[in-house]
Amino acid sequence: MPHAIARRRLAALAALPFLPRVALAQTSPQAPQPDGPVTIIVPYTAGTGPDILARLASPWLQPRIGQPVVVDNRAGASGLIGTQAVARAAPDGRTLMMQPNTFVMNASLFPTVPYDPVKGFTPVALLTRGELALVVNPDVPARDARAFAELAKRRPGAIDYASPGNGTPQHLGMALFALKAGVELTHIPYRGSAPAIQDLLGKRVAAMVLPVHTALPLVAGGQIRMLAVASDERSPSAPDVPTLAEAGFGGAQADLWYGLLGPAGMAAPMVRGLNAALNAWVAEPATAEALKAQGMVPSPATPEAFGELVERDYRRWAEVIREAKITAG
User: Fold this and answer.
1) What's residue 296's pLDDT?
2) CA–CA separation, 116 and 104 (whole Å)
């Protein structure tokens, strides 16, 4: 799944010496605080990206709110079980959840979901974002995204692409590109990133959308070719690779993000205090450098800006899912 950042990629963060910076990170003494232990629910299994981020952020957050902070994995039904539990919790700050952007995609992917991603939660803090890229195996006779689209137009449905599964950001990112390019591609879903990448490298599939940091070593080894990045601007890690917009496919931007949310109705002063503490955590040089090394860009934002991102992505991906006729099956 897209949120399943391998443990080895982020495990080094756990050993970082997060020294207190009370002036920057401590919540305001006037802000209401949770009146008991705080649980960060992760609606996915241990070792996934949201789980690791929750377990790394909790020791930083605990002394700043004066309450124990524990992580509770409630996996199942593509994250729906844990997400529903948070939607039903009291908005007292004692129940939070760590989510990737699949959280907003699932709301349109499944026929029914037990939550509203916009109205059912309080956005607390956006933590990180990750860049995605359109890549192909070296046998594909296209050197850029425009040539790839032209090839696909000449061979409707004959070019396939891999993804870690239906409805993942990688799947939807390629589906969005296909819509903007006006081409028909064949989706091959896998159970996770590893087998999908293996078949891309084995030239059993033609293309894929990959995180930039995952693609770069494979590009350096000549195993794949990077045609474009799907971010708004060129990636600092791959400055010579144009964006999809530069290739003529405006509106095809796609990325990964991770953030912390709570039940709807949380007190604004409490949210601002939690937001300040977590923004300070991602701004720590040790945190920022380690995240950047894994292609995750620290992305501190206000709760309001995070809420706007959630709503914007929900509506945007709902349109892609509808137009591309994508289902969870």
Assistant:
1) 82
2) 9
